[in-house]
Structures are given as C-alpha cells and as structure tokens.
Amino acid sequence: MKKALVIFSGGQDSTTCLGWAKNRYDKVEALSFEYGQRHSIELEQAKKIAKKLNIKHTILNISLFKEIGNSALLDKESDINAPHSQKQNLPSSFVPNRNAIFFTAAHAFAQRIGASYLITGISQEDYSGYPDCRAEFIKPLEKALNIGSDSDIKFLYPLIHLTKAQTFKLAKDEGVLDIVIKDSHTCYNADHSTFHPWGYGCAECPACKLRQKGWEEYQDSF
Length: 222
Ligand code: ZN
Known about the structure:
It is globular and about 45 Å long. It is α/β, with parallel strands linked by helices. The chain contains eight helices and seven strands. Residues 187-189, 191, 201-202, 204-205, 207-208 line the site of zinc ion.
C-alpha cells in the first residue's frame, strides 16, 4: 500500500496537491501547521477542505516562530507589501527557516504514520520569492533527514515548475478546481469574505495578486 503525507496549508497550491495525491496513492493524510500566521483563517479552510475530500487531517502547533521568526506574516501591524526588514531582496512575508522546520516535523510525522511519500506544493516559477521554496534547498534537506533517521521517504513537489495558471489547470485535471476556488485560502490579509472569480481575498496583497494573475492567464489559455 502506498501512503502519502501532504503538507497542507489550505491554500491553492497545497489543495491542488491534495487532489493530485488522492488520485495517485492508496492512502493520503494531510498535515497543517499552526505557527501564529496572521491569516489563520487558512487553517479553518484547511479543515473544511480535508473533510470534503475525506482525508485525515492533523494540525501541529509550532508556536516557536513567534519567538525566533521575523516576518510580516506573523505580525498584523507590519506592511505585507514591503520588503523584508532585514533581507531587502526578500518580501516581508518571508519566515526564516519555515520550510526547514515544517519539513523536518512533517518528515518525523510521516515516519510515525508509515508514509513513504511527503508531498509539498512548493513552486519556483510564479512563487513569492522565498528561497526555501526551491528544489536546490529541498533536495539536500530530504537527503539529510533520511540519513539522520534511517528512513527512505521520498519528497515530491509536483508544482515545482508550474506557473499559477498551470496550477489552476492541474487543479481542474485532478478534479479539485471548484474546491480551490471556493474553499482554499491564500490571502495574507485573511480576507475570506470578498469573492472574485479566482476565489476569496483582498485582491491587494502579494498572494492575492499572484493568484489573480494566474487565474487570468489560465482563462486566456482557452
Ligand atoms: Zn489578499
């Protein structure tokens, strides 16, 4: 039996991955992180989506980011559209070492539940400029974690070379486009009341702009 664990934020990309995994593996579970994110509505949406797809869903609490992290994503008062306060070439929403900690925790959880595959929705095409969303970071981490725990868990990132428009198409192909539009949450400003053709959001934060642009490109492709 092939079992997979999906790192699941409740956003467009990981919701697409959940649909993708469900169509390929015998058993799929989803793992989310509560880390003090300002858009914690995404966790509420994550719960709803997992329920709709009939996937077992676990939320891990990782509160340490509030103490070690420096990111506008953890602070409602910060300007989400500005550059990062210490790394001017990165966006303010960058959370230092977030994926290193998420993947390390998820890798341990995968061992616990007997999953042989760890799936994430990271992308290095239309992405937010986070250096920890690149294959050159994930591949050595996968190798190190497997060596360090005597495991052989394969990391999969089906969206790594996809644009947001191509991710919308993949969601359609995997049968989850409706859930992506109506239930997934991407907006950094936690706006889940204003509905657009591409989903809910403020339409002004970088995450909404990326999602809107991807939707328009996807529509233009017909
Ligand atoms: Zn927004």
